[in-house]
Design brief:
alpha+beta; 10 helices; 17 strands; 27% helix
Length: 307
C-alpha cells in the first residue's frame, strides 16, 4: 500500500469519547507501519466523515481508512458516493474499530487489537462486499449501509443510548439499553413486501442485515454473509414481556432464531409501509426520512480484510 494515497478519517467522539483518549497510541501505530505516507483528518461537528471521504476520493485518494465505530464507518461509506452515484469504484475501505458496538468489524472478522488491525491495513488484502441502498419517499437521495438497517426497537435504542453509557459500558452498552427498553417498548404495525409476499405484522422490530453481528456482539442474523448478494431479514413479532427477556438471553448465541416470534427471510429487495413515528437506523445512525425500500448492491465495495 506504500504507493497509494491514504486518507485516515478519525472520529474522536467514538465509544462515548474514549477514542480521543487513544489518539496518541493510534498515531504511533500508524507511523510505525506507514511512516508519513498518509493524510490524517479528524471529524468535528462542522466536518463529518462523509465530507472528508468525498473530498479525499475526488482528489485522487485510493484508500480511505475509517477509525471509529459503526456510525463513523457508515459516514465514510456514504462519502464514497456523490448524489447517489459512486465516485470511484476502485477506492478501498479500511476499518480500525474504535467504537462501542463494532458490529461491522466483527462481521468482517477483524482482529480486536489496534496494532493487528493497522498491520492488516498495511498488508492491503481486500475482498468485495455487498452494501445496502436505502430508498426514501419523495425521491430524496439514497443512503447506504454496510452492516445493518433496523426498524423499531433498534432505532429506538440508537436514539436513547447516551455517550456516557457508551463510555462506561463499552461493548455492553447496547445490551444494557436493550434490557431497559424491552420492558415498555410498544410494537408497531408494519407492512413488508418481500419475495413476492406481503407480510402484515405487529412488530417489535425488523433487522435487514448484511453482516452477522450487530452492536456489542449480538448475533441477530447469525448466518448473514457480507458478499452473498442477499440480505438476511429478521422480523421480530410482538411478545409478552417475559418472552422478550427469554428471547434476549439467546441473541448473543444466535439461538433466538428458532423461536416462534422470530421470522427469518433472505431477499435482494424489500419494500415497506408504516406509520410515521417508527424509528429507523442505519449502522447505528438514526435516519430522519421515511424509508420505502431497500435493495442490495452486490460486491460493489472493496474492503481490506484478513479473509
Amino acid at each position: 500500500m506504500s504507493n497509494k494515497k491514504i486518507q485516515i478519517v478519525f472520529n474522536p467522539a467514538s465509544a462515548g469519547g474514549k477514542a480521543k483518549q487513544k489518539k496518541e497510541k493510534l498515531i504511533n501505530e500508524i507511523k510505525y507501519y506507514f511512516g508519513d505516507g498518509y493524510t490524517f483528518s479528524e471529524t468535528t461537528p462542522e466536518l463529518n466523515a462523509t465530507s472528508i471521504s468525498q473530498h479525499a476520493i475526488e482528489n485522487g485518494f485510493e484508500s480511505i481508512i475509517a477509525v471509529g465505530g459503526d456510525g463513523t464507518i457508515n459516514e465514510v461509506l456514504n462519502g464514497f458516493f456523490r448524489n447517489g452515484i459512486c465516485i470511484n469504484p476502485d477506492v478501498t475501505l479500511g476499518v480500525v474499530g474504535f467504537g462501542t458496538g463494532q458490529g461491522f468489524a466483527q462481521s468482517l472478522g477483524l482482529p480486536r487489537d489496534l496494532s493487528s488491525q493497522i498491520k492488516l491495513i498495511k498488508e492491503n488484502r481486500t475482498r468485495s462486499v455487498d452494501i445496502g441502498k436505502i430508498i426514501f419517499e419523495n425521491s430524496y437521495l439514497p443512503k447506504f449501509f454496510l452492516n445493518e438497517f433496523q426498524m423499531g426497537i433498534g432505532g429506538s435504542l440508537n436514539k436513547t443510548i447516551s455517550p456516557y453509557t457508551k463510555k462506561i459500558l463499552g461493548r455492553f452498552a447496547f445490551g444494557f439499553e436493550a434490557i431497559k427498553t424491552l420492558y415498555s417498548y410498544k410494537a408497531e404495525e408494519l407492512q413488508l413486501f418481500i419475495n413476492g409476499k406481503t407480510i402484515n405484522e405487529k412488530v417489535i422490530g425488523v433487522v435487514v442485515a448484511n453482516g452477522a453481528y450487530t452492536g456489542g456482539g449480538m448475533r441477530l442474523t447469525p448466518n448473514a454473509l457480507l458478499n452473498d448478494g442477499l440480505f438476511d431479514v429478521l422480523v421480530i413479532k410482538d411478545m409478552t414481556v417475559t418472552q422478550r427477556y427469554i428471547s434476549f438471553s439467546k441473541i448473543y448465541s444466535g439461538k433466538h432464531i428458532t423461536l416462534d416470534a422470530f421470522e427469518l427471510h433472505k431477499a435482494k429487495i424489500l419494500e415497506f409501509k408504516y406509520q410515521n413515528g417508527l424509528l429507523l437506523s442505519s449502522d447505528g445512525e438514526l435516519l430522519n426520512r421515511k424509508c420505502v425500500g431497500i435493495e442490495v448492491l452486490h460486491s460493489v465495495l472493496n474492503v481490506i480484510s484478513n479473509n
